[in-house]
């Protein structure tokens, strides 16, 4: 943990298409890499329109597979994050931390573990016992409740986590989520047997983030940043 608390700016992008959110991430990364001053570490929160995304380990999602998924009514994007294919869509809380790990700990492995612990702590606030596994992400039994896939260049992080709140889980039936055969997906709503909205989950995720990363937040959850 850092000796001094870092301050993170929280920006709520609202519901936004994946490609627009990606551009905003790139703008924040550029600020970190090119600014003479120290840009703020930022948490970008959002919800996406339906889209399947793949990471740097892309096989076997070739053009034919891409077209098959697009025919379902979702977009498709190849990205530079870690991991294989996953789904983003309405009812899923997506958090993109754009952090300079020099303000925390210069360890990618540490960072991914802290993201997992953050979500586990948040799930505990809901009375859900979540765990890690040899596979990245956060799990409830054999079902993944939160996918994690990041990119890190010069210790500046991007991409992040996607937590299923009241997501339509049938979208995942058309893929092998994260390339893991024999396991499923779940959501806060499915585990609790009631509707859990992003509005209910977001404050708990932020609370868990501040505790796990020993940081303070400055934010306006009603503001929306545009590209």
UniProtKB/TrEMBL annotation:
GO cellular component, one term: mitochondrion
Matches recorded under InterPro entries: aa-tRNA-synth_II/BPL/LPL, BPL_LPL_catalytic, Octanoyltransferase, Octanoyltransferase_CS
Top-tier EC class: transferase
Chain ranges of the BPL/LPL catalytic domain: 37-217
Name of this chain's protein: Octanoyl-[acyl-carrier-protein]:protein N-octanoyltransferase LIPT2, mitochondrial
Keyword Mitochondrion listed: yes
Superkingdom of origin organism: Eukaryota
Family: Belongs to the LipB family.
GO molecular function terms listed in the Swiss-Prot or TrEMBL record: lipoyl(octanoyl) transferase activity
GO BP terms: protein lipoylation
Organism: Danionella cerebrum
Role of this protein: Catalyzes the transfer of endogenously produced octanoic acid from octanoyl-acyl-carrier-protein onto the lipoyl domains of lipoate-dependent enzymes. Lipoyl-ACP can also act as a substrate although octanoyl-ACP is likely to be the physiological substrate.
Annotated keywords: Acyltransferase, Mitochondrion, Transferase
Residue positions binding substrate: 81-88, 147-149, 160-162
TM segment ranges: none
SUPFAM superfamilies: Class II aaRS and biotin synthetases
